[in-house]
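Need a sequence for this fold. Nothing fancy.
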């Protein structure tokens, strides 16, 4: 049987989820239940099972992207499938991988699960730890200050200082899919309010979002 990943959505080019232009993939479902989770509704939608080979082919074909950022949901709940997808892409081209996870690096490192080990071994930057609403203090590229941006390889060593540490503000993009509008990036309190107002207005017009 064809192997599949349960996903929420993806974009094929963003500048707000890591260095360079990247694809981004949000997997569906999470084993955590963080108060204030931005993905709460998304994680409760019906499963959307997609062919791993098909996803790999699509992402590998986006040659203007340097790599991918994977978020969710919880990527390490589908570690084996994601590792397989990345394996196919990496056989075709050089590809950088950034992953957001609710697990800490320590927790993942002590796991005996082969898929988790494989996926961790393919990750260049891990942004780890559960979202904590009371520690959401505006730091860029992460939801709360307990989350760490950890270099697991040298791939982004030269970008780390300027990209992650240079006092940047949070930034979002609004992405228009054929039947859905998605917010990409980690929003500031102001950005989140604008997004929620947009959703309310669209729902009021009966348009949905
Ligand atoms: S780990 Fe992330 S996706 Fe999962 S509940 Fe927490 S904030 Fe939401």
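Here you go.
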């Amino acid at each position: 049987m064809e192997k599949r990943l349960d996903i929420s959505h993806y974009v094929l080019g963003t500048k707000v989820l890591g260095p360079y232009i990247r694809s981004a993939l949000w997997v569906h479902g999470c084993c955590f239940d963080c108060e204030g989770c931005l993905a709460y509704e998304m994680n409760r939608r019906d499963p959307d099972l997609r062919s791993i080979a098909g996803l790999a082919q699509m992402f590998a074909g986006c040659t203007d992207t340097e790599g991918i950022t994977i978020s969710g949901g919880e990527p390490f709940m589908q570690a084996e499938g994601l590792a397989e997808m990345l394996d196919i892409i990496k056989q075709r081209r050089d590809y950088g991988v950034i992953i957001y996870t609710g697990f800490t690096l320590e927790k993942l490192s002590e796991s005996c699960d082969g898929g988790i080990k494989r996926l961790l071994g393919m990750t260049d930057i891990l942004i780890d730890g559960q979202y904590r609403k009371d520690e959401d203090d505006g730091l860029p590229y992460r939801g709360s200050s307990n989350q760490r941006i950890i270099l697991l390889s040298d791939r982004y060593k030269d970008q780390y200082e300027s990209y992650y540490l240079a006092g940047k503000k949070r930034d979002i993009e609004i992405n228009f899919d054929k039947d859905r509008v998605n917010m990409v990036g980690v929003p500031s309190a102001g950005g989140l309010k604008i997004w929620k107002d947009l959703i309310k207005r669209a729902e009021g017009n009966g348009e949905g979002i």
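For context: The CA atoms of residues 111 and 117 lie 7 Å apart.
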